[in-house]
Design a protein that fits this description.
Structural class: alpha+beta
Radius of gyration: 24 Å
Shape: globular
Helix content: 25-40%
Number of helices: 15
Strand order of the largest sheet: 6-3-9-12-11-10
Distance between the termini: 19 Å
């Protein structure tokens, strides 16, 4: 018997990603129960007329935000966020006027339906409104990435005397130096915009048919060559069991690592107008600094510095470990787009060091550890990382098996002596797994507890499937 569609039951935590891909045996009523929504809501968010008709592999949006969400990001030619840009967003009879934030973004909005018309305007240098985008919302969270063909450099100068020309402040001097050393962007492709012929536009399909509007293109070709290796394909239950058998551990341990490290995301859609997917990453400037011998610390502290990025709540605070004694926007951890902006800029300075300075994929394996994954060649490591989730899982297995034993930390008796990562994975030693991934400060973020909770959630879910 099918439950009434108005009945809402509590979700099973951490089981259904949003969006969700339909699997064999799924029904809309079962999916609604598992995510705590009603059948009527799922029908509206996905444009489903007949709730009985689902296809294996079909993508379903499980919230209004994932179905009708709207996000906008403004970047300059070097992929730096454009802050304080005046914008006007119109949809569903609403007019939102404001300025982009420090990350170059407009606060995420949710349209009324898939048929909502969305118009986006920006104010140009002559204080005139220019329409850049006019599109229908459609189904799926719409990501609009606008990349300017120009480089935005701050022009605020400090007072001077006795100099031939003004001397920029330290922060602005760094920005100007980075601009001067970077390669010029390629000319964007696409059709000229009606409002501004100098701007070219494209409309492409994003993840699962999600519409994506892109203006401008600027990515190093050699980096793009890696991304073109993508073949796709999610990790199946058999894949989990195969690698877990090789490691003599439970599949749920590996699933927990993926959940905590990347939220389970292995790839993001490339929003540069060239199509393709890119592995999920986290750029680590302290590794880039170490690998390049601090060569770029003084000129590019945003991407090369002995100390890692800080959390956003520390923005503006004094910090003697930062290059100018305080936590600036360049010192903030940032979001996914920020990591790729930093990778691209670092790649132009030193491609090998840049690739080694990122944590890659579903399991966030640092590039510098490619040999531990069983790949002596960084190029082969990157190729596998870019091909599919299954290849990433194979790299994880190598990383676990080849990690040398760690000596116990005298300040933490919970860490055993000479326990390898492989031993920790076999015995579900969450503290030791956390130590290998996050170092001695893993307790600060309760990493071991997050791993254990994720494991228990997956264990419960997998047991329910087998029952």
């Amino acid at each position: 018997m099918q439950p009434p569609e108005s009945k809402r039951t509590g979700p099973l935590p951490g089981l259904l990603p949003d969006p969700y891909r339909v699997k064999p045996g799924d029904t809309l009523w079962d999916i609604a129960r598992r995510c705590g929504k009603t059948v009527h809501e799922l029908q509206r968010w996905n444009g489903l007329r007949d709730p009985r008709k689902l296809q294996v592999g079909q993508v379903l949006y499980l919230s209004e935000t994932s179905a009708f969400g709207l996000s906008v990001l403004f970047l300059d030619a070097l992929r730096h966020p454009i802050a304080n840009l005046p914008y006007r967003l119109e949809f569903d009879g609403r007019i939102l006027v404001g300025k982009t934030g420090p990350d170059g973004q407009i606060p995420t909005q949710v349209t009324r339906s898939a048929q909502s018309l969305v118009d986006l305007w920006v104010r140009d240098a002559h204080s005139q409104w220019q329409k850049l985008v006019s599109t229908v919302s459609g189904y799926g969270h719409k990501l609009i990435t606008l990349v300017s063909g120009a480089i935005v450099v701050p022009t605020t100068l400090e007072p001077f005397s006795g100099e031939v020309r003004p001397v920029p402040s330290k922060k602005h001097d760094i920005a100007a130096t980075a601009t001067a050393q970077a390669q010029p962007p390629r000319k964007p492709s696409g059709a000229p915009s009606k409002n501004n012929p100098a701007v070219t536009t494209k409309t492409i399909k994003g993840p699962n048919g999600m519409p994506t509007i892109v203006i401008g293109v600027d990515l190093p070709q050699t980096l793009m060559d890696y991304f073109k290796q993508f073949k796709g394909g999610e990790i199946t239950a058999k894949d989990w069991e195969k690698e877990a058998g090789r490691l003599e551990c439970e599949p749920e341990v590996l699933q927990a690592i993926a959940k905590v490290e990347s939220g389970g995301s292995a790839f993001w859609r490339l929003m540069d107008g060239q199509g393709g997917h890119v592995p999920a990453i986290l750029y680590e400037r302290q590794y880039f600094s170490r690998l390049t011998g601090g060569k770029y610390d003084n000129t590019h502290p945003d991407i090369s510095w002995p100390v890692g990025y800080r959390k956003r709540e520390r923005l503006g605070r004094d910090d003697p470990e930062m290059h100018d004694g305080r936590v600036d926007e360049d010192d903030i951890l940032g979001n996914y787009a920020t990591s790729y902006q930093r990778l691209i800029n670092a790649y132009r300075l030193d491609p090998v060091a840049a690739l080694k300075s990122c944590s890659w994929g579903k399991f966030q394996i640092l590039g510098v550890n490619h040999r531990l994954c069983g790949e002596p060649s960084l190029k082969k490591f990157m190729t596998k990382m870019c091909i599919s989730e299954v290849e990433q899982l194979g790299l994880l297995a190598g990383f676990i098996m080849n990690n040398p034993p760690a000596w116990k930390d005298p300040k933490n008796k919970a860490l055993g002596r000479e326990i390898s990562l492989w031993d920790a994975v076999k015995t579900k030693n969450w503290r030791m797994i956390a130590f290998y991934y996050n170092g001695k400060k893993y307790e600060t973020y309760q990493y071991h507890l997050k791993l254990e909770r994720a494991y228990e959630a997956y264990k419960k879910a997998n047991s329910a499937k087998q029952a």
